[in-house]
């Protein structure tokens, strides 16, 4: 592999979709706009959350909030759960359903914050790896251009460098592909929260 092709390959990685465009936050590699935390008002138009009381103090509301917030619970399963809870709540239905939303919001928003922090760490690791790949490409080229390049020991060093370069480049590309899916998670959590809010508000 020539010096030009090596550097071209390394530069292509550094200019990949996840790192290509200058962004206000260099640690945010996603196409989706970064919204660090959600506000309840962006999805909730029901009663004031504070006036409903602490959702953590209502054991049944807290249990339901955790269940509907969990992605293991299909959204189609949420409706009968809410109906059963609302029927049992009686005259306190509005207040207790509001607590369920407050709990689901806190859980999903907290999970989303952690995912966003994880994406930032992921992007930092990708940036460091891209820089290492570029350094490896430059080292391979410089070693090949050296007068002793034909020596057996140097030839082995070049082969080892090229193996490491190819391995790191493969890992980088696989992680870049995974990042595309990871970037969708905050949006999916926000959509889930919006759907839960809609379902609860329909029962107030």
TrEMBL record:
Domain of life: Bacteria
Keyword list, A-Z: Signal
The protein's name: Uncharacterized protein
Signal peptide location: 1-20
Origin species: Methylobacterium iners
